[in-house]
Amino acid sequence: MNDKLLEIEDLAVHFHIPEGIARAVDGVGFHLAAGETIGLVGESGCGKSVTALSILGLIPSPPGKIKSGKIMFDGQNLLDLDRESLRKIRGRQISMIFQEPMTSLNPVLPIGRQVAEPLMVHQGLNRAEAFEKAADWLNHVKIPAAAKRLNDYPHQLSGGMRQRVMIAMAMVCGPKLLIADEPTTALDVTIQAQILSLMVKLKDELEMSLLLITHDLGVVAQMAARVVVMYAGQVVEEAGVTDIFDRPFHPYTRGLLKSMPRTGHSGKRVKRLKAIQGTVPPLTQMIVGCKFADRCPHSFELCRENPPTLFRIADGHRARCWLKEHPERRRDNV
Ligand SMILES: Nc1ncnc2c1ncn2[C@@H]1O[C@H](COP(=O)(O)OP(=O)(O)OP(=O)(O)O)[C@@H](O)[C@H]1O
Ligand SMILES: [Mg+2]
Fold it and tell me: How far does residue 28's CA lie from ligand 1's centre (Å)?
């Protein structure tokens, strides 16, 4: 049996915008095993959400276009499926939680109906059965007095409660893969912690895989087994969570860790915060060598002349950086 539930290979997604072609995702590849949680991290605009939306077939076209690649899910290439087949997989086998619940919750429908709907559509339950199961789920995600709130509208709930409804909606059909795109960024810290532990609990109960997209390396340390770091549409480093926090290789990953006010995986508090210098290059710009070279404190001629590939650093640890081939140029104190 193939334990790679999701395997993305060489995915490229372009947006045709007035300034030119934005290469939002430029050759991304990673996999997710059954039951595994991976954290997808990187600065704003590096292509995390576009990668996630590609999995679900939700790239707006135009202006977006999937140029190449494969997204293998449970043995089939999602990019080969027609709209109808993909719609069947969405919600039933793969579901997604968005950062802002109001983008997914329908403001004019009661929450009970919204949680019950996927059960009627995907599992063929009748109305009464679906509403009963919806109430169970709202209970399960700890909505107080759930049965009485089935007729509440989203605006009658707090942000944290709305996010719980989203979790219930995403999980009712028992998907194999849950994609959570910044699921807690809009919430305050205490509620964040509650929502995250709820997600972990349900994920374990349902034996799901989780693709967790976040800016917050603290959340990654708490939840993920492996981490994929993206920069300007590419995967620049991939490793187990301990390696990422204790032995990051790519200067970008090291920069991210230094710029985050979070406790590392090892429990060490990051003391002085240091922003990564410069900004992400425009995605319309053709870059010959490494996309990070302009911001990199270690870059040398080769970095500007040739694009690095993902080099093996250790078992399960890869980094897209020429320093692997030229270790004498690496200065750890930068
Ligand atoms: N609908 C769109 N039209 C045009 N360009 C888009 C569109 N959606 C995304 N892009 C481009 O793709 C890039 C990557 O966007 P994406 O939303 O994946 O970033 P992200 O990594 O999720 O960032 P954030 O952390 O801010 O959510 C954007 O910088 C933008 O240039
Ligand atoms: Mg995003």
Answer: 15
Ion ligand 2, residues whose Cβ is below 5 A away = 49
pLDDT tens per residue across all 334 residues of the chain: 458 999 999 999 999 999 999 999 999 999 999 999 999 999 999 999 999 999 999 999 999 999 999 999 999 999 999 999 999 899 899 999 987 777 789 999 999 999 999 999 988 999 999 999 999 999 989 899 998 999 999 999 998 899 899 999 999 999 999 999 998 887 888 888 888 888 889 999 999 999 999 988 888 998 999 999 999 999 999 999 999 999 999 999 999 999 876 554 555 554 567 788 888 899 999 999 999 999 999 999 999 999 999 999 999 999 999 999 988 877 654 4
Phi-psi region of 161 (alpha: psi -120 to 50; beta: other; left: phi over 0): alpha
- Reference 277, options 303, 251, 300, 302; nearest CA is 251
Among the bound ligands, name the one nearest to the CA of residue 24: 1
Domain 4-93+175-329 has CATH 3.40.50.720: no
For the chain, helix (H) and strand (E) counts, in that order, are 10, 12
Largest CA distance in the chain: 68
295 CB within 6 A, ligand 1:
no
Atom nearest to 52 CA in ligand 1: 18
Index of the ligand 1 atom closest to the CA of residue 42:
21
